[in-house]
């Protein structure tokens, strides 16, 4: 039977981590939590479980932290989760079946993610099924992309498993607005450091294009008012990325005030590993 590690990164996740761990217990032979020095009860809750291994590391970016977490896992197969995600009962069944089957050539498996927001599960708006590689063979996959909109690349062939990762990304609309503000700052800061500069033309049309992409072409209208709110938030997020690049380009600020000083500062000198050809990306608020 295959052995499975669950890799989870955390920072002040006392309200989420217990449910995340509980959803992993039926299928994970090891739960590795890599924490970036939480100041709440995250560590206490995590250490109350016998098969949880709790470690800490300075946070230097979502991609870097997630790769550090999978490097610390003991078993060949890894499922990578955020603290606000849960393994659904149907996915747990698929994982149990996967563990009992003989090994094959696949080095990763895409899993669907179903997000709960504003009182309902969002099944359109570009948020579902949003299949991404989340289950993979150690040494054959790495987190990549652009912080914080990361994704997994695998080396070699991959497959798909049935069942959803349940995602409780926002407590309410106010939390979504806070997240849009924080994530747009990280994207703008990352892009500016890579040489992106402000330009008027894209800021005039891209936010509008993002709204219609989400609401019309990705059928956000079928999600009711939450779908409309998601489209507006996505358009606003697109605008904020350009506006924050403008602030840095004009030297009003060195970085957005809500980006950690450690962000982008490498804790180690480990080289980045890329696996071309098997990447999938996307984000709810891109």
Descriptive overview:
The chain has 286 residues and is of the alpha/beta class. The chain has a domain at 173-249. It is built from seven helices and eleven strands. It has helices at residues 17-24, 42-47, 62-71, 89-100, 173-193, 200-217, 224-249, and strands at residues 4-10, 30-35, 52-56, 77-82, 85-87, 108-117, 120-122, 132-137, 141-146, 149-154, 158-167. Strands 1, 2, 3, 4, 5, 6, 7, 8 and 11 form a nine-stranded mixed sheet that branches. Helix 5 packs parallel to helix 7 and helix 6 runs antiparallel to helix 7 (224-249). The termini are far apart. 40% of the residues are buried. The model is unreliable at 267-277 and 280-286 (pLDDT under 50).
**Which structural class fits the helix and strand makeup?**
alpha/beta
Distance between the termini: 39 Å
The 3D shape can be described as globular
Helix content: 25-40%
User: Could you give the count of β-strands?
Assistant: 11
Task: Write a brief caption for the model.
With about 290 residues, this protein is α/β, with parallel strands linked by helices.
List keywords for this structure.
disordered C terminus, 7 helices, globular, alpha/beta, 286 residues, 24% strand, two-stranded antiparallel sheet, 35% helix
């Amino acid at each position: 039977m295959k052995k499975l590690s669950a890799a989870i990164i955390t920072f002040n996740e006392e309200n989420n981590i217990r449910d995340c761990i509980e959803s992993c217990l039926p299928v994970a032979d090891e739960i590795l939590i890599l924490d970036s020095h939480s100041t709440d009860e995250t560590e206490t809750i995590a250490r109350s479980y016998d098969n949880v291994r709790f470690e800490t590391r300075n946070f230097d970016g979502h991609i870097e932290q997630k790769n550090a977490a999978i490097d610390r896992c003991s078993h060949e197969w890894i499922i990578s989760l955020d603290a606000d995600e849960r393994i659904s009962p149907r996915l747990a069944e698929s994982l149990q079946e996967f563990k009992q089957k003989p090994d094959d050539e696949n080095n990763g498996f895409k899993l669907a993610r179903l997000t709960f927001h504003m009182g309902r599960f969002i099944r359109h708006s570009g948020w579902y099924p949003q299949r991404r590689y989340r289950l993979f063979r150690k040494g054959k996959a790495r987190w990549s992309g652009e912080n914080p909109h990361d994704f997994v690349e695998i080396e070699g062939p991959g497959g798909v498993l049935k069942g959803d990762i349940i995602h409780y990304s926002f407590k309410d609309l106010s939390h979504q607005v806070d997240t849009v503000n924080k994530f747009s700052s990280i994207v703008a800061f990352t892009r500016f450091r890579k040489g992106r500069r402000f330009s008027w033309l894209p800021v005039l049309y891209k936010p509008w294009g993002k709204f219609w992409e989400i609401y019309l072409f990705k059928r956000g209208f079928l999600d009711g008012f939450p779908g409309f709110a998601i489209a507006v938030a996505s358009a606003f997020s697109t605008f904020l990325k350009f506006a924050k690049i403008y602030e840095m380009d004009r030297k009003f600020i060195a970085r957005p005030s809500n980006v950690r000083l450690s962000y982008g500062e490498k804790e180690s000198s480990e080289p980045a590993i890329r696996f071309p050809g098997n990447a999938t990306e996307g984000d709810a608020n891109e």
